[in-house]
Design goal:
The chain is of the alpha+beta class. Helix content is 33%, strand content 27%. It folds into 2 domains: 331 residues, Bira Bifunctional Protein, Domain 2 (BirA Bifunctional Protein, domain 2); 97 residues, Anticodon-binding domain (Rossmann fold, 3-Layer(aba) Sandwich). Bound molecules: 5'-O-(N-(L-cysteinyl)-sulfamoyl)adenosine (5CA). 5'-O-(N-(L-cysteinyl)-sulfamoyl)adenosine binds next to strand 8, strand 13, strand 16 and helix 10. The site of 5'-O-(N-(L-cysteinyl)-sulfamoyl)adenosine (5CA) has 19 residues, from strand 8, strand 13, strand 16 and helix 10.
Length: 445
């Protein structure tokens, strides 16, 4: 992409109404525009990162054996009456009537809708296990939408639902989601810690929230510092292996990690003093096992091996995809702007032409831009007639992890400068070597 042709409406001033750094940077970098309280338009660069996150979620869901579907945002109230949640859900549910006077709602979550799909089409234990998921906009009429996309009213969520014959199988689905979520967050450059939590309006006894530690997080959390050493990294997980998935859960559950809702002072006191931590965190996902809470009232049954109809065991599992953009920025920025982790960056490399209009510099940049594109590095080339300082500031603000700076002086020696956004360290090398290094870096992700 050429910066001169892109739509990147950068703000020079700090927006007055943004209280936290991620919200401020998303507005300044021209990623989102507020439409109404808690509702945003996604401008090109914001949308691009959102799509990247979505792709990672899809890839990791596929790896775990889960199957993508898409359900509507608008639903009929009838299903919610069947489950008994229509009246109980309260003011967070946006309700409306269609022209025939039928009660409709904007889906805040989709347990009922997916259970209805299941009961219409599945009737035998032989079709289990089954996990269906979607990535779709949700609406919750939050009383206090704030912090930009972190607590929106409309937000993008991955919601997955498992259907299993037994509690044991459903708990495997729970553990599988736990492992797959950890992989997902790690690929986004984040460490999210699963913590025992409260199940709220979704219901059920088993639930973990995934928290990214950040001072601006809305949740208060308590944990044993040893949990932060657990990584999925290069582990070769077989998602169909119950013991392996359970093993990961047990690594976490053997260490104290809870949100304030389930915090237990007495248990926490047993953690060695030097490892006790209390901090704030951003909830980027939650998994639930709730047994037959929805399958019972909605009559989602299968024939078991003896031919007896039994309600299926279910769980639901959510990732806050749009919230993750905020969480990533909270976890990765400096005074100059965003620092995208390589796995989610909107562009792989920024090319800065120090002397636009200089024939040699222009030619070198064009060649570099072409080669970087051919290598799949998805470059953004700042070809505007701007001062070098302004170009650097823009690249820093929008957070591109690598920058190649091209100027007449370096070109005399056949070199350009490759700079890491994170460390600020620059190295001079030939354009070919710079591209080779970047191609290697991105191939290793
Ligand atoms: N049905 C279950 C799982 S699919 C469910 O709705 N879970 S949830 O309520 O925990 O939401 C899943 C994730 O969506 C949360 O962990 C959070 O990351 C994100 N989320 C929830 N509310 C908001 C909001 N108002 N703005 C942005 N993200 C949100």
């Amino acid at each position: 992409m050429r910066m001169s042709r892109y739509f990147l409406p950068i703000l020079k001033e700090n927006p007055a109404d943004a209280q936290i750094v991620s919200h401020r940077l998303m507005l300044r970098a021209g990623m989102i525009k507020q439409v109404a309280s808690g509702i945003y338009s996604w401008l090109p660069m914001g949308f691009k990162v959102l799509r990247k996150l979505e792709n990672i979620v899809h890839e990791e869901q596929a790896r775990a054996g889960h199957i993508a579907i898409l359900m509507p945002t608008l639903q009929s109230a009838d299903l919610w009456r069947e489950s008994g949640r229509y009246d109980g859900y309260g003011e967070e549910m946006l309700r409306m009537k269609d022209r025939h006077g039928r009660d409709m709602l904007f889906s805040p979550t989709a347990e009922e809708m997916v259970t209805d799909i299941f009961r219409s089409h599945v009737s035998s234990y032989k079709d289990l296990p089954l996990t269906l998921y979607q990535i779709q906009w949700k609406f919750r009429d939050e009383i206090r939408p704030r912090f930009g996309v972190m607590r929106g009213r409309e937000f993008y969520m991955k919601d997955g639902y498992n259907f299993d014959l037994t509690k044991e199988d459903a708990l495997h689905a729970y553990n599988r989601h736990l492992v797959s979520y950890l992989r997902t967050y790690e690929r986004m450059g984040l460490q999210a810690i699963p913590m025992r939590a409260d199940s709220g309006p979704i219901g059920g006894d088993y639930t973990h929230e995934f928290l990214v530690l950040a001072d601006t997080g809305e949740s208060e959390v308590f944990y044993d510092a040893a949990v932060t050493d657990i990584r999925m990294g290069e582990r070769d997980i077989d998602f169909s292996d119950k013991a392996q998935c359970q093993g990961v859960l047990e690594e976490f559950t053997s260490l104290y990690a809870r949100t304030d809702e389930t915090h237990d002072e007495a248990l926490f006191a047993e953690v060695p003093k030097d490892r006790q931590r209390s901090a704030r965190g951003i909830e980027v996902g939650q998994i639930f096992y709730f047994g037959t809470t929805y399958s019972d009232p909605l009559g989602a049954k299968v024939m078991d091996e003896t031919g007896k109809p039994v309600p299926v065991h279910m769980g639901s599992h959510g990732i806050g995809v749009s919230r993750l953009l905020g969480a990533i920025i909270e976890a990765s920025h400096d005074d100059n702007g965003i620092i995208w982790p390589e796995g989610v960056t909107p562009f792989g490399v920024g090319i800065v032409n120090l002397k636009q209009g200089d024939e040699e510099a222009d030619t070198a940049c064009e060649a570099l831009y072409k080669s970087a594109t051919a290598l799949g590095l998805d470059p953004i080339y700042d070809d505007r007639n701007e001062r070098a300082g302004g170009k650097f500031a823009t690249m820093d603000l929008i957070g591109i992890p690598w920058r190649i700076t091209v100027g007449p002086r370096g070109l005399k020696n056949g070199v350009v400068e490759l700079t890491s956004r994170k460390t600020g360290v620059s190295e001079e090398m030939t354009p070919e070597l710079a591209l080779e290094a970047l191609a290697k870096t991105y191939a290793s992700l």
